[in-house]
Specification:
heterodimer, A: mainly alpha, B: alpha+beta, two-stranded antiparallel sheet, 6 helices, rod-shaped
Chain lengths: 328, 171
Amino acid sequence: MIFWLIAEVIKILIVFACLLAAAAYLTLLERKIAARIQNRMGPMEAGFHGLLQPIADGIKLFFKEDIIPAGANKFLFLLAPIIVVIPALTTFAVIPFGAPVKIMGHTVPLQITDVNIGILFILALTSLGVYGVVLGGWASNSKYSLLGGIRTAAQMISYEVALVLSIVGIIMIAGDLSLAKIVSEQSHMWFIVYQPVGFIIYLIASTAEMNRVPFDLGEAEGEIVAGFHTEYSSMEFAFYFIGEYAQMVVNSAIIVTLFLGGWQGPFLPSVLWFLIKVFFVILIYLWLRWTYPRLRYDELMDLGWKFLLPLALANIVVTGFIMILLNR
Amino acid sequence: MDTEKQENSIIEISKNFLVGLKTTIKTFFQKPVTFQYPKERLAIAERFRAFPHLNVNGDGSLRCVACFLCQTVCPSEAIKIKSGYIDYGLEHELTERQKHNHSLDKLKAGTFNDGRRHPSSFEIDLLRCICCGYCEEICPEEAISMGNDYEVAFYTRDEAIYGIEKLVKSR
């Protein structure tokens, strides 16, 4: 029992530290990739090729003045960034990041907890992030923040539907909601082969869910200054950033778990396979971001409701038909 | 016209999306066109010209003979010259030709000169200068030429007026 407790705590600490470090260094990766795509060099000054840039940014943000606008709802204003970060970090609890290892005769699964409704847990938590954005936008007492918050809320709710429906195909094939089971079901064939359409829908919908370009309507610089985080400064602003990038890591991890066979792979250790796959999915997100311009608001809603939703429904129906035909 | 049909077809749209992705991945693997400016610098072209500076002879004396040609030709009136004579003292031995130079007669007594005019002050206002290079072109003595120092900055307008010393030192 004590061994189990210690193992859990160590796993939690490792995952927590890795997520925060990944969120910090994703900012550097994003800037570097953006620079390369635009034929620039990106940050080069802090450390070798800018390797210390995230730390420098963190220190800078930590010592910045903490401005709370007059007329802002102080409690909600401070609460909102926390609501963004916590679900993003918590979602990782159910994602298996490696094959079970044997330590001192005990089998330790490399997953903080194997909830038997893992997918539902993930969906519930990722959609909590919208509250942080909406509350932050409302509590700022600024028209830009409010507009950004409202836009983001509408967008997240719209894309949530397509996001959930795109996973249903996976659940049907795997026959289980537990993520560990889903990973072990993919030992012969990754689910992206059976569900290519579901993969694409999930990729698009999760980009919209994370408020990233080309779906960053909520923080559109050209239109509403910085959207919901216009009034935020200092560490609260940093919290929004950590939340955004942690969400990106988590979403990539979900994609890897659901579609790309999780930690399974030949030759290399399972954790390494997981990290490599997550890294490549993150690269896809970055690649998308620096390729496409932002959608107009009506285009965004059109894409969500008129294209992705029917496609996701059709995907479920077709998957069901084929499963009946193959008599599985 | 079938343009409308093309715009609406999903295949066409997704093909354009893929073209965008291909473009960005191609530039991703290209060499960056920017460089780390204060550490690395672009090679300056041979005919590059920045602000003018004054040339000196081998012994360190100015080549300028205060002929005023550059001040006259300067389109932005950046150059201000005051002519004068250099006092070589009693020890200076005049050449035969210099002895017969009566332009020296006007000098006050006790001043000895080599018989050539020299600028007593030579000022170029770098804020007026347009780096056109006319002064270099017209100078009969090759006393003024265009440098290549493009990083010139001042705190006040007065600092921008370069005297003889600064003009000799600047590149």
